[in-house]
Amino acid sequence: MDKTTILIVEDNEEVRENLEEILALYGYTVLAEPNGLAGVKAAIQHLPDLILCDVMMPELDGYGVLNMLSENERTAGIPFVFITARTEIEDIRRGMNLGADDYITKPFYKDELLNVIRTRLKKARARSGSARAEGVATTHLSDPEGGNLRLEKAFIVKGRRQTIDQGHLIVREGEYPHFIYRVEAGSVHLSRAHEYGRDYIIAELGAGEIFGVPSALERSPFHYTAKAAAKATVLQALATDQLLKLLNTDRTVTEALMRLMAGRVVSHGERLVNQAYDSVRRRTALVLCDLHEKYAGAAIELSREELAQMVGSTKESVIRSLSDFKRDGLLSTEGKRLVIQDVDSLRGLLV
After folding, report:
1. pTM for the full model?
2. How far apart are CA 91 and CA 69, in angstroms?
3. How is residue 299 annotated by DSSP?
4. To 10 degrees, the CA torsion angle through 172, 175, 179, 183?
5. What pLDDT is recorded for position 267?
6. Per-residue model confidence (pLDDT) at position 90
7. Whose CA is closest to 313, among 274, 346, 267?
8. pLDDT per position as a tens digit, 185-212
9. What is d(CA 220, CA 224) in angstroms, rounded to the nearest whole number?
10. Quick one: which of 315, 349, 351, 345 has its CA closest to 329?
11. Dist CA 99 CA 63 (whole Å)
12. With the C-alpha atoms ordered 169, 173, 177, 178, is the resulting torsion angle positive or negative?
């Protein structure tokens, strides 16, 4: 039996289960996720041999999944096959231009599905074998532990040590980075300002954790504000030019940072995978909390289209969030009317 692992990313439960059944029947090890964000996490964590991914999904579509995995060294070489009901040539061309290996259209035939999978796996193995025969170095993390130690030493020897009082600003959202930071003692809160003017915490970092690396490498502004969250928080600040010199001269440090960032994607999931944007669920919760105050606790009269416009997302994604809130007992619905049942728990989603 073939022990090849295939990851299915498909939001339609019936299609997903059908694919699982077919692939399991033919001996494949199957992983399945119901949305794009979960699919990215699973791909990075499990490194499947092939990915089958739907195109049209809420929050993060198949194009977004492919783009994110293509930019990650751990997953860039995994064969990627789109599953789509949309057969327009523009959609197919777009997927192939982004780097997809193949596509199948819904409804699909079992033989067609299996042929595509076998062909793509065979070509991937041939490429891998050719690379080994030619002596081409494959991507691997040879000494990330050593890289961590050398990075820590750079913070100590070349970094600037500073003590920050609780609540004081370290970096502000929108500023360009001159340093990356390592927490030596205490803790740091990373927060973002929502479009409605409120702040919410996206991460709490403790001793040994590092922040600012993606912004430093991309030369892009910080997408969060960082403040000291404990009394006498101690930081080590390493200048960005020192970081770049270190990365250019020591591959193990590069490997250590790759593992750090990949691990954050896995452990923090949606929050760090989609770190530049608020999740639809959180934005919906924030809008509902604001409306709850505006309506003084009374029922909210609002169509789903109007609510989606306020959230800044599709109606389908907002309806899915409302269904989650209703299932968890946070609100009830009566036609267009929304009644908040547990505003404190709803606010808790913003933290």
Report:
1. 0.42
2. 19
3. P
4. 20
5. 45
6. 65
7. 274
8. 999 998 877 555 556 667 788 898 999 9
9. 12
10. 345
11. 10
12. negative
Contact at 8 Å (CB) between 199 and 172?
A: no
- Mean pLDDT score, 250-269: 64
Full set of structural domains in the chain with CATH: 5-133 (3.40.50.2300), 144-273 (2.60.120.10), 280-348 (1.10.10.10)
CB 237 within 8 A of CB 160: yes
- C-alpha–C-alpha distance, residues 108 and 85, integer Å: 9
For residue 191, the surrounding DSSP H or E stretch is strand 188-193
Angle at 321 between CA 11 and CA 195, to 5 degrees: 120
Minimal CA–CA distance to 43: which of 71, 84, 15, 12? 71
Element (H, E) at 180: strand 179-185
CA-to-CA separations, 340 to 293, 301, 317, in angstroms, rounded: 10, 12, 19
What's the rounded mean pLDDT across residues 99-122? 88
Cβ atoms 157, 245 nearer than 8 A: no
Considering the chain, what is the average pLDDT of its residues? 82
* Three-state DSSP state, 182: strand
> What does DSSP assign to residue 139?
P
